[in-house]
Recover the amino acids of this structure.
């Protein structure tokens, strides 16, 4: 059976909905909400953004000493932010969601590759398609000038 792009996109949207309902995404949403409701965190983020704008201006005008001082302030505020437990939870949950997305992407990619290899009578363990295994001419692996 052949699938259309539309079929695949529909399935991808279904998969995305499933991912959005995982524990990883739930923890991410809860941590983000806590960060958005915390005025101290929001003030610190606003300070960092303002200092970053100053840093860009100082860099543009070649004011290296002022730039260095502003960057030190930014680093200190970022360290302060990173030491807040809910920020740590947020970053951890963000990494967990990203890891899940990476696993899904890798699984799809690897499975498609394996399906292509198997459907051509190739060798999955060596990662070679049937035309490569059978030594057919025309594959890019035999010096056809495709490089």
């Amino acid at each position: 059976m052949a699938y259309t792009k539309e079929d695949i996109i529909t399935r991808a949207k279904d998969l995305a909905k499933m991912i959005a309902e995982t524990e990883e995404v739930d923890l991410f949403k809860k941590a983000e909400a806590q960060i958005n409701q915390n005025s101290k965190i929001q003030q610190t983020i606003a300070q960092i953004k303002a200092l970053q704008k100053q840093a860009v201006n100082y860099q543009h005008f070649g004011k290296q000493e002022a730039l260095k001082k502003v960057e030190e302030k930014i680093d200190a505020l970022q360290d302060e932010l990173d030491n807040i437990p809910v920020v740590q939870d947020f970053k951890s949950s963000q990494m967990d969601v990203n890891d899940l997305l990476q696993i899904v992407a890798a699984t799809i990619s690897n499975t498609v590759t394996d399906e292509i290899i198997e459907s051509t009578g190739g060798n999955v363990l060596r990662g070679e398609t049937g035309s490569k295994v059978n030594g057919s001419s025309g594959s890019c692996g035999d010096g056809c000038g495709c490089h």
In short: DSSP finds six helices and no strands in the chain. Confidence is low (pLDDT under 50) at residues 137-147.
